[in-house]
Amino acid sequence: MNGNVIFFDGGGSGIRAKSESVEGKSITKNFAGFTPGELPLVDYLANLIIDFASEVGGPIDRAVLAVATLPADDKQYGDIAKAVLAKSEVKELWICSDSVSACAAAVEKDGVVIAAGTGITALAVGKNRTMAHPLAGDGFLIGDEASAYWIGKMALNSALRARDGRGGDSEILNVACKHFGTEPYQLAHIVHQQIRPVHEIASFAKIVNELAASGNQAATEILDAAADEVVLIAITAKRECSGGPDFQVALIGGVLAPDNLVTKMVAKKLEAHGLSIHTSGKSSLDGAGILATLEGPGVFQKLIRTFKK
């Protein structure tokens, strides 16, 4: 599709927006991220699109919103679309998970993309790109294994166990207290009272990576468990999609950055299953841009809600 488009991608750590016009002009902007329960979802997402469309100016042929936290029901989807289409010059709105934008960016054939940041999400396509299969994720309350939040939470749990004698690791306890600016007894209280506790716990994953790289056994075991979860997603995706030997496994997001120890662990474990890491060189925001210019949702049909004026 040729036209003026705007597109968004992101989650707990931030939402990125970009415009592309038929004249070749482009605007890029970053917005604050959020996790479920932090703010009114419908109003926030609708206003995000409306405000950026206003900043870009002029008619917008399509807006694509690809985010980690999606509306819970048809009414919420409809309320976002109603507000956007009424209060902006957006002609068509697509709403989907950020796993869809990630897959559009990172997987060219049959394969799976696993995106791990504050949370985690995965989407596989198979049978010559005629089917799509979402996997994992499910949010910090009941899922998100191998996400930055999960890694941070597991490390803090180890710290608290060391504090009261149930095991755990004393080095992680010392580093956690320094990171959060508190002493052992107050650690749990301080974490719970953070303005954005999920985000702050996720940020501790970087420290866990550093501890593992320095030889801390407990931190290494946490990352190894995270790597197992990522590999489980990959091999499950291949099986569910009837993937062949060229099934692509793409990893994106801060947790799975190329230089991170957990990524190296994943690469080694994938080899045992005849798989390797596929690199496309595109970001999830690039994927949202790809969606914005498609003639139709195609293989992602069941995963994208579309609305028109």
What is the gyration radius calculated from CA atoms? 20 Å
For the record, the CATH architecture of the largest domain stands as 2-Layer Sandwich
Helix fraction bin:
40-55%
Q: What integer is the average pLDDT?
A: 92
How many helices does DSSP assign? 11
Low-confidence stretches: none
Largest sheet: 6 strands, mixed
Strand order of the largest sheet: 3-2-1-4-5-11
Structural domains: how many? 2
Could you tell me the CATH topology label of the largest domain.
Nucleotidyltransferase, domain 5
Domain ATPase BadF/BadG/BcrA/BcrD type: 80-287
Describe the SSE topology.
Elements: E1 5-10, E2 15-20, E3 26-31, H1 41-56, E4 62-67, H2 74-87, E5 92-97, H3 98-106, E6 111-116, E7 120-126, E8 131-135, H4 148-164, H5 170-180, H6 187-192, H7 197-203, H8 205-213, H9 217-240, E9 248-252, H10 261-271, E10 277-278, H11 284-292, E11 304-308
Parallel strand pairs: 1-4, 4-5, 6-9, 9-10
Antiparallel strand pairs: 1-2, 2-3, 5-11, 6-7, 7-8
Helix pairs in contact: 1-2, 3-11, 4-5, 4-7, 4-8, 4-9, 8-9, 9-10
Domain ATPase BadF/BadG/BcrA/BcrD type: 80-287
Please provide a brief summary of the model.
Residues 80-287 form the ATPase BadF/BadG/BcrA/BcrD type domain. The chain has helices spanning 41-56, 74-87, 98-106, 148-164, 170-180, 187-192, 197-203, 205-213, 217-240, 261-271, 284-292; strands at residues 5-10, 15-20, 26-31, 62-67, 92-97, 111-116, 120-126, 131-135, 248-252, 277-278, 304-308.
